[in-house]
Design a protein that fits this description.
Chain B: This is Fe-S cluster assembly protein SufB. Chain B: Belongs to the iron-sulfur cluster assembly SufBD family. The structure holds two protein chains of two kinds. Chain A is α/β, with parallel strands linked by helices. In chain A, 23% of the residues lie in helices and 37% in strands. Chain A has helices spanning 5-20, 22-26, 31-34, 37-47, 63-66, 83-86, 125-131, 133-136, 150-158, 391-399, 404-420, 426-441, and strands at residues 71-72, 97-102, 105-106, 121-124, 163-167, 177-183, 189-199, 204-213, 219-229, 234-242, 247-257, 262-271, 274-283, 289-298, 303-312, 318-327, 332-341, 349-358, 364-373, 379-387. Chain B has one domain (2-475). The chains are: A alpha/beta, B alpha/beta.
């Protein structure tokens, strides 16, 4: 396939950026991070920024968001205000350890976390990789490094910092860790963030990511998160995306699950520009279970694309996916869900569902569920629908004296609740329900101040 | 388990029963493809200028196209210069009755079971038999002509109805549509042409039987069906090929144009030689089939039973242009041994209140791979459109694969699109239930598979349904792993 002239120029801009700043990239970072850069940039060069001819990016053209004059943040920049002050938690019952990241970097004035169980490490990836490399080396890039995605490779080439969590074996981290990703700048900014989460054997942890913007500028975030869930471990990873509509982000999450482990991950997209969420789950042992949920509410010119890939490499595992989207105005949604059951991964149960509601004639939804099944003793299914709110259900409510707009609201809330109800942190569940309702009523601010934390 | 292995062995060692070679003289041209070859084909067929232009335009576009690689298929490289692009039975028959036909040919038809002869009149099927891409005999022509129906070889239509051909050729599948469509447009040698005039309901099933016979040849036939306002036709297509160690290429095009309130039903039983059980030989079947519901309330339905071919690459599609038009796709695709199939449909909703239904049943056994790939696209103007898709896959044995790749694109708020897919194997409880009632495992599997495919088989015209059912049994009975 020949690359278009523009695409070559665009991709070259990013490789040139890499080569011009090679020394700055390495500076301050552990060799663990630096040694991956050369291979990664080569991998990126091979494909370049994916255009719509790339099957995996068929419904999301990244050239548009990459083709801007961004300032690349290659080292930590001091923040002139106290971000801890800028945030007031308005859900007091949500008792979490709060960690702030700004423009992809671990915020220097994060308050130290109190009462963490022994051995639990929370901090900056750059710092931990320098100071405790033994916690990082067996995990970093072990999943992302296998990805063919050029955007993931670009992250590996450019990444310097991000969030790090380590939970040793046999430890239950009761309190969720809340990671608040902030974008704040006075100019157009490109940020690269690299997160690593390790949950040891027979341990438990919950992480909540909240993506926010503090200023309305053109932002592009290239975010990669690798999560390792040990044998018999239980991990929850929630993401709430509520950014300004000028903020674009590509989030690639990789989950590797040991035998008997249990994963719940859920992403809620409320506001934002172009958002692409890549998610990969790979089982590394039998009897593991993955529950993957997502929902989005879009309007204006928003573009949300969820791309999932569940790799059933071992027998007796279960995966369950539910993605729901409500599209208003001129927004565009996309969903691609791939379930791959490899040969001899018998007794696999894999289910997937994608339901979408279009509210206007100018909104557009593209969905591409896929099953690739190479074993016979399996139960796999997928279902996808694109439609409207059920007129009969609406009639039922109106016949009982509920006004039309209220009735619609109730039905949409119920539609979304099927995803929300799976959240295993109760205050968070209630809060997201509330946010969804606010979002549907059009009352939710396009996050300059935070609604979530 | 032992019994199952035995049954599996029996099934996989089934001989391909259509694998004979008929020994009649062929008129072939040298191997290879170039503008000269295309001119030669066109000259041999004594075609008017517009046909040559059509071919050359397609050829020039084809030269610039890469071979598609997006399907879930492993296609060995094909040397397009190593293929004979024209092969015709030498004594091109211009017969008045069957008595004059080359007895060798009659013998072939008898082996195929084509109802060409008088005794088959009762079957009530008009047949156009195409051997190595050249139409040799069309039956019932006079009966049809009374009603104004034109049913003849494509080359004959070019000579006798050039206006119709010129008007509709390439209107559903343009020359630049895809790699294989362009190749076919450049070199197609013959095929069938069918024209149903306004208000006419075709009194019998029309049928084309395709057969590749000569070695080293590719088959490139082209079917064009035009249904005028308020007309109806049901069309059948069957195909077989001799057993050969080499792979043979078959790249066909079927175009259907349905005008106001017309209905076209197109049924296929595809049984090209699938290769032997080691996966050697077999036909590469790369087919472009597309129908346009151009008129309002028109309807096109595709029904296919795919049991043959080493590689199948085929997506019969409907473009629903007219308001209230309807598209249907019903498919049973069976793969065994080393067969690969990537098949499905496209439903493009353009007109208002358009409806489409997709039922796809995939059955894979042996070491085969069977994929469904489909697109449902609802354009913003196609308000109140409706689609329902169901794709089920049945896996027989642990070494085969079943895959589903649907694409759904919806651009307005009043349309409803539903898709569901399941993958499973025959339940042990189902087999046990049958065994318990004195039904052997082999029969039980036959019953279950036939029941599974029944939804689609029921859509086939009677004559075909029987054949299809038999084919299913031959391909699969008992092959549980």
């Amino acid at each position: 396939m020949t690359m278009t002239a523009n695409k070559i120029a665009l991709s070259e801009r990013y490789t040139a950026l890499f080569h011009a700043n090679r020394a700055r990239l390495d500076e301050g970072s552990s060799n663990l991070i630096n040694r991956m850069r050369d291979i990664a940039i080569k991998r990126f060069e091979k494909v370049g920024i994916p255009g719509f001819k790339n099957e995996d990016y068929k419904y999301t053209n990244l050239e548009r968001v990459f083709d801007q004059d961004y300032r690349h943040i290659l080292e930590y920049e001091k923040v002139d205000i106290d971000l801890n002050e800028a945030f007031r938690c308005d859900v007091p019952q949500l008792d979490t350890h709060v960690v702030l990241l700004v423009n992809g970097w671990y915020y220097a004035k994060n308050q130290p976390l109190q009462n963490l169980p022994k051995g639990v490490v929370v901090g900056s990836l750059q710092e931990v990789a320098n100071e405790q490399p033994e916690l990082v080396q067996d995990y970093l890039n072990r999943q992302a490094g296998l990805s063919e995605d050029p955007i993931v490779a670009l992250n590996t080439a450019l990444a310097k910092d991000g969030f790090f969590l380590y939970v040793p074996d046999h430890v239950v981290l009761e309190k969720p860790i809340q990671v608040i990703n902030l974008m704040r700048a006075e100019d157009a900014v490109f940020a690269t963030q690299r997160n690593l989460i390790v949950v040891g054997k027979n341990s438990q942890a919950k992480v909540i990511f909240c993506d926010h913007t503090l200023s309305a500028r053109d932002f592009l975030t290239n975010n990669v998160t690798e999560v390792f869930v040990g044998e018999d471990a239980v991990a929850d990873v929630y993401t709430v995306q509520n950014q300004d509509n000028q903020a674009n982000s590509i989030n690639s999450s990789f989950f590797k699950q040991g035998a008997n482990s249990n994963l719940l991950t859920s992403v809620a997209t409320l506001h934002g520009g172009l958002i692409r969420n890549n998610l990969k789950v790979e089982f590394a042992g039998e009897h593991a279970e993955a529950n993957v949920y997502g929902m989005s509410f879009t309007d204006k010119k928003q573009h949300v694309d969820n791309f999932t890939n569940i790799e059933h490499a071992y027998p007796n595992c279960l995966s369950n996916q539910v993605y729901k989207n409500v599209l208003d105005e001129d927004s565009v949604g996309a969903f691609t869900g791939r379930i791959h059951v490899v040969r001899d991964a018998q007794k696999t149960n894999a289910f997937q569902r994608n339901n979408n509601v279009l509210l206007t004639d100018s909104a557009k939804m593209n969905t591409k569920p896929q099953l690739i099944i190479d074993a016979d003793d399996v139960k796999c299914s997928h279902g996808a629908t694109v439609g409207q709110i059920d007129e009969e259900a609406l009639f039922y409510l109106r016949a009982r004296g509920i006004g039309e707009s209220d009735a619609r609201m109730m039905l949409m809330n119920a539609f979304a609740h099927e995803v929300v109800q799976n959240i295993r942190v109760e205050p968070l569940r209630d809060r997201i329900d509330e946010l969804v309702e606010k979002r549907l009523r059009g009352e939710l601010a396009r996050c300059h101040s935070c609604d979530m934390s | 388990m032992e019994e199952q292995d035995k049954i599996l062995h029996e099934v996989t060692s089934q001989e391909y029963k259509f694998g004979f070679v008929s020994d009649y003289e062929m008129d072939t041209i040298p191997k290879g493809l170039s503008e000269d070859v295309i001119r030669m084909i066109s000259a041999k067929k004594n075609e008017p200028e517009f046909m040559l232009e059509f071919r050359l335009e397609a050829y020039r576009k084809w030269l610039k196209m890469p071979m598609p690689d997006w399907a879930y298929l492993k296609i060995p490289p094909i040397d397009f210069q190593d293929i004979i692009y024209y092969a015709a039975p030498k004594k091109k028959p211009q017969y008045e009755s069957l008595d004059e036909v080359d007895p060798e040919l009659i013998e072939t038809f008898n082996k195929l079971g084509i109802p060409l002869e008088e005794q088959k009149v009762l079957a009530g099927v008009a047949v156009d038999a195409v051997i190595d891409s050249v139409s040799v005999k069309t039956t019932f022509k006079e009966t049809l002509a009374e009603k104004g129906i034109i049913f003849c070889a494509f080359s004959e239509a070019v000579q006798e109805h050039p206006d119709l051909v010129k008007k509709y050729l390439g209107s559903a599948v343009p020359t630049s549509d895809n790699f294989f469509a362009a190749l076919n447009s450049a070199v197609f040698s013959d095929g069938s042409f069918c024209y149903i005039p306004k208000g006419v309901r075709c009194p019998m099933e029309l049928s084309t039987y395709f057969r590749i016979n000569a070695a080293g040849t590719g088959q490139f036939e082209r079917t064009l069906i035009v249904a005028e306002d308020d007309s109806y036709v049901s069309y059948l297509e069957g195909c077989t090929a001799p057993m050969r160690d080499e792979n043979q290429l078959h790249a066909a095009i079927v175009e259907i144009i349905a005008l106001d309130r017309a209905e076209v039903k197109y049924s296929t039983v595809q049984n090209w030689y699938p290769g032997n059980k080691e996966g050697k030989g077999g036909v590469y079947n790369f087919v472009t089939k597309r129908g346009i519901c151009r008129g309002e309330s028109s309807k096109i339905s595709w029904t296919q039973v795919e049991t043959g071919s080493a590689i199948t690459w085929k997506y019969p599609s409907c473009i629903l242009m007219g308001d209230n038009s309807v598209g249907e796709f019903n498919s049973v695709a069976v793969t065994n041994n080393y067969q690969q199939a990537d098949t499905g449909t496209k439903m493009i909703h353009i007109g208002k209140n358009t409806k489409s239904t997709i039922i796809s049943k995939g059955i894979s056994a042996g070491k085969s791979d069977n994929s469904y790939r489909g697109l449902v696209k609802v354009l913003p103007g196609a308000v109140n459109s409706r689609n329902f898709s169901q794709c089920d896959s049945l896996l027989l044995g642990s070494t085969c694969g079943a895959h589903t790749f649907p694409y759904i694109e919806v651009g307005n708020k009043s349309s409803v699109v539903e898709h569901e897919a399941t993958t499973s194997k025959i339940g042990e409880d189902q087999i046990f239930y049958c065994n318990q009632r004195g039904i052997s495992t082999e029969d039980a599997i036959g019953m279950i598979v036939n029941g599974y495919a029944k939804e689609v088989l029921n859509k086939l015209p009677m004559e075909f349904a029987v054949e299809a059912q038999k084919l299913l049994q031959i391909s699969l009975e008992g092959s549980v792993g």
